[in-house]
Amino acid sequence: MIKQLVQQMTLEEKASLCSGSDFWHTQPIERLNIPAVMVSDGPHGLRKQDDKADHLAVNESIKAVCFPAGCATAASFDRQLLMTMGEAIGESCQAEKLSVVLGPAVNIKRSPLCGRNFEYFSEDPYLTSEMATSFIHGVQSKNVGTSLKHYAANNQEHRRMSSSSEVDERTMREIYLAAFEKPVMDAKPWTVMCSYNKINGTYASESRKYLTEILRDEWGFDGYVVSDWGATADRVQGIIAGMDLEMPSSAGINDRRIVEAVKNGELDEDLLDQTVERILTINYRYLENAKPDTKWDKEAQHALSAHLAAECMVLLKNEDHVLPLSKTDDIAFIGEFAQKPRFQGGGSSHINCFKITSALEAVKDMAQVTYAKGYDLLTDTTNDTLIKEAVAAAKQAKVAVVFAGLPDIYESEGYDRTHMGLPDCQNEVIRRVAEANPNTVVVLHNGSPVEMPWVDDVKGILEAYLGGQAVGLATTRILFGEANPCGKLPETFPKKLEDNPSYIFYGGEKNIAEYREGVFVGYRYYDKKNMDVCFPFGFGLSYTTFAYSHLVVDKETIKDTETVTVSVDVTNTGHVAGKEVVQLYIADHESTVIRPIKELKEFEKVALMPGETKTVTFFLDKRAFAYWNTHIHDWHVETGTFDILIGQSSQDIHCRQTIDVQSTVKLPVDYDMNSILLDLLSDPDAKAIIEPLMLDMMKKLMAQDEDADKAGNEAITLEMSKAMMQYMPLRAIVSFGNGQVSPEQLAMLLKKINNPEE
């Protein structure tokens, strides 16, 4: 059907389908009864605009439900939770006649400063890819598409439309592309959104390497690529590269360029046909499964949003079991966020909520609390009157809860943060309240890490992230023990911004942003540096406790073509029901490449009643042990010993077991006269050929010199000579060999080493 439609089109009609008709709709062709379809911003709710549409939410969108943002949902470490949220958003899309929701956003949190971090999941690509895959499955189970974004290396808002992300091949594969790879291959999103930025000098919208060779040829993507809104540079080059749909409309300008390019031979019309087929295939996938009579129960989704938010919150500190609160105690809620919660970020994902539940509103049904504003969200300036009211309320309470976080202006699409601090007025309120009441708890509303100069002065810290429109209800449930916190940090909270691995180079110089920290993003860097952090990746407390035991690895040795099964018992050793996130990390004992100390390779969230034990099982394949080898341009496992680590965070490992992995891939070698002996001797095949020559040569030289200098020979042993020679290039054997080895002989040895099969 699609191919037949395309064959009936004029060149001009084909070109018109390659861009939107407006901000949110694809182009219809009435002559052929091809309707338009609508897409909408996401990814944590709908921002559907019908009239006077714009990209950055200047004009109001329909009333909708705001679920927790990506920064929060990643903290759940719960695949099923993301699936459930995706299903709810998919139903909303069907009710609102939307074909594609623009999300999830899987860009890695390279720096706490990125203004759009609240939309992104994590600093870790494995966690990111798992969350995204589940979300996509959920949405698309309702016959609505997703748009995996922003592909790729879009990790800053500063100069995002012109900056070139300069990333080496291994870093790109292990960190930034890995977040996209599994969602594309396993969840098969209907669309992928290319980013604004350049990648190593080429705009993402014009990169055939990324849009065709990797995305389609390697990963098997079969949907269409859509530009980020306004990300199209050269439209014709975009089609050649594999960028299908330009959004928003270019008012026909780029359509005419496409027509001209076909007519003058610059653009093969077959490529244009292919582009149109991709777009129509996805459009009709929705149209043929549209369910416009779907009921959108916003109240039910509001309740779901509260449940999701509670599952995502991370208890960072609970000294002296200050939490949960007693409903009969005198409690003070302090801070404007208690009354006006911050629960989403600014920009294209900003949702016009039909309902918002604050903590002050929700607590009315649980307990009596005293409220003090404490600070003004519209200013960073400390207000002495508000602080005095806050201190007075704190002194009268058994526990003082300060609601703090980043105001809207601090975090938004379009620009980056300039520092990692809370507003000064909020830090001062927390300090003064903690002085007045030793039982002070801080609730944080933020989309990215913040510095905590008061971390040692308060007894409790609850990270609520940006928890959606029902965040107040979820927060009070956690505070008063109606729900048990079970979130884990999807990112490291450093003690200060300067500790972040990208700190020196983040933002770049003019239009060049160099990713000089390489693969050492987040905990990979802090572990390697053995650096103290405020809270590590994967960390999170509970109102109960857990114990790990009986780690079992079913094989002691495997080939890289085999899988290994890992199981561990987890027991709830406390007195209340709770959920634990079991985290599995892999550590390479010794590697010829510089690798992180450990990397997250699996996780599972498990619910346990008091005293209950469950066995959690993982299956690991080659990828769990591999790194990206830039010589073969593929994933590679080196033969060696690896640790399988089970823990509660990246810095809290409870069980470990070793396993030997044997590589079945022989890496190609190409030694020459400038190759040093150390490298040759590290290669077993080369060593077998070259080492006898070295030993023979050294023995002869030492024998010749024996009578000349006995004292010298006692000082310079055979072992010492071998150690000294390891950095010597092969050609130096001729110079130091006293005529024993000729260049011709070395050339023959090299040929034998490089071509052992001959």
UniProtKB/TrEMBL annotation:
Keywords: Hydrolase
Pfam families recorded: Fn3-like, Glyco_hydro_3, Glyco_hydro_3_C
Keyword Mitochondrion: no
GO function terms (MF aspect): beta-glucosidase activity
Gene3D superfamilies, A to Z: Glycoside hydrolase family 3 C-terminal domain, Glycoside hydrolase, family 3, N-terminal domain, Immunoglobulins
Domain (Fibronectin type III-like): residue spans on this chain: 580-650
Entry-linked InterPro entries: Cellulose_deg_GH3, Fn3-like, GH, Glyco_hydro_3_C, Glyco_hydro_3_C_sf, Glyco_hydro_3_N, Glyco_hydro_3_N_sf, Ig-like_fold
Statement: the UniProt record of this protein carries the keyword Transmembrane: no
Membrane-spanning intervals of the chain: none
Gene Ontology biological process terms from the UniProt entry: carbohydrate metabolic process
Family the UniProt entry places it in: Belongs to the glycosyl hydrolase 3 family.
Record-given protein name: Glycoside hydrolase family 3 C-terminal domain-containing protein
Organism of origin: Vallitalea pronyensis
